[in-house]
Design a protein that fits this description.
The chain is mostly helical and about 450 residues long. It is built from 16 helices and 2 strands. The chain has a single domain, classed as Growth Hormone, Chain: A. About 80% of the residues lie in helices and about 0% in strands. Strands 1-2 form a two-stranded parallel ribbon. It is globular, with a radius of gyration of 22 Å. One of its GO terms (molecular function) is molybdate ion transmembrane transporter activity.
């Protein structure tokens, strides 16, 4: 393996950030919408338009909170004087909680209502923030568990709530497709805002002002609680536990399309988790120095730009079957990670590969959400989504355990993530093959 050790401090060219910003703005105004150019202008009037704007605001607030805890994670570990082994244990505890408890939260969400689980998301963040301010060090392990459960809820409850509300209001499929990519776009933009907000809170001195980040998170969580509880209505859940269990078991065990879709989601979740854990250590490996704070928004900007490609495959001249372009997107993601795993490369090449990976993630996430709408019934959507994360969380816990004992290296973990993405491409190929067979059968009839 060839390793390039750089002696200079590397930082991305400012023109890259300007490029991403300009193209993200242009992508919003040049989207192939019907009939207007602005994506929010063509949304249906009335109740759903109000829900759409309020939901995106709520989702952006949730994304800011999710990103706020991640921005200064390592500095917070240093604040608590945790060793590297303890940091790995901290991450492992969180993913183990997501595996053992989070896998079943989606079913609870389907039964009691997604609004209640979204409220729990904010309450978990509020509890963590207040406990850090009041108690401090003894709560750090509980922090890992509660934040991991909040992240699990963030993955399935907000999307499921939005889809059910969309159907209840009787809106077009086009408006639902727009919501999927807008959620990915707003999530990435909010993560960048989290970085700006965290920098404002710490004011250049992390160890002195880190508690101000917790105070800011508690205020945001309290605002979220008020936002959800006041003025938001949700239809009562009428499905009995027995009927829900029968429906979930029938679809989860007999529908091969749901199997493959869940596997694809699990592989994407694992690859994204491995990416965010290892991207910084990979860049600064072998003593290299780089401005990670400037690279981070470039990665998220690439994800935002990738999400804006999604509407072109439905409204514009690039109309193509969803499983077909997903197949190529998974191949690109797998190739990008394969190159990283094979050779560290110079920092500029690594950043380019990581940006390509994130751009594909921005396209893949709303596309998988669209496929869930096609194949997963709404009444079990949360349960299927939470269960699909179980293999990914189990794999992360396993690899973190092996990594902590030096049984495997970072490149091995990245290689497994790449293999998973190539298997996703295979799943999309099977979807494509089934689609052709169904089309031929309909023509014969």
């Amino acid at each position: 393996m060839g390793v390039v050790i750089e002696s200079e401090f590397w930082e991305p060219n400012q023109s890259i950030c300007i490029f991403l910003f300009i193209f993200c703005v242009l992508s919003i105004f040049l989207l192939p919408t019907k009939p207007a150019a602005n994506v929010l202008d063509h949304a249906p009037p009335g109740a759903f338009l109000r829900f759409q704007r309020k939901f995106l605001l709520l989702y952006a607030l949730s994304s800011v909170m999710e990103g706020l805890w991640a921005v200064f994670g390592e500095y917070e570990f240093a604040y608590y004087r945790l060793s590297k082994e303890q940091m790995v244990t901290f991450l492992s505890v969180g993913y183990a909680a997501s595996l053992s408890i989070g896998s079943f939260l989606g079913m609870i969400s389907d039964l009691v209502g997604h609004k209640k689980l979204c409220l729990l998301f904010y309450l978990l963040h509020l509890f963590v923030s207040i406990s850090k301010i009041v108690i401090g060090t003894p709560t750090i392990w509980f922090t890992s568990i509660f934040l991991a459960l909040a992240s699990s809820i963030f993955f399935f409850s907000f999307e499921s709530w939005m889809v059910i509300e969309h159907d209840k209001l009787g809106q077009r499929q086009d408006s639902l497709n727009d919501m999927f990519w807008l959620m990915t776009f707003f999530e990435s933009a909010s993560f960048i805002s989290s970085q700006v907000l965290a920098n404002y809170f710490v004011d250049g001195n992390v160890f002195k002002n880190v508690k101000s980040v917790w105070s800011g998170a508690s205020v945001l969580a309290f605002v979220g609680v008020l936002f959800v509880t006041r003025g938001w209505k949700e239809a009562r859940q009428t499905a009995a536990l027995k009927d829900y269990h029968v429906s979930l078991r029938r679809h989860a065990t007999s529908d091969k399309r749901i199997w493959m879709l869940s596997w694809a989601q699990a592989c994407v979740h694992f690859s994204v988790a491995a990416f965010w854990i290892l991207w910084a250590p990979t860049i600064v490996a072998d003593g290299r120095e780089a401005s990670l704070g400037l690279i981070y928004p470039c990665l998220l900007g690439s994800k935002m730009l990738g999400s804006t490609v999604f509407p072109w495959f439905f409204h514009g001249p690039l109309v193509i079957r969803i499983e077909e372009y997903l197949m190529y997107a998974f191949i690109l993601m797998g190739l990008a990670l394969s190159i990283v795993a094979y050779d560290y490369q110079e920092i500029g090449v690594l950043v380019a590969l990581f940006c390509l990976f994130q751009a594909c993630v921005g396209l893949v996430l709303p596309s998988l959400a669209r496929m869930r709408t096609m194949y997963v019934p709404n009444e079990i959507r949360g349960g299927i989504m939470s269960l699909s994360l179980a293999p990914a969380n189990a794999a992360v816990v396993l690899f973190l355990f092996l990594r902590s004992y030096q049984y495997i290296g970072n490149s091995t973990i990245i290689s497994f993530a790449a293999l998973g993405l190539f298997s996703c491409a295979g799943c999309m190929y099977i979807f494509k093959k089934w689609g052709k067979q169904l089309h031929q059968s309909s023509h014969r009839l």
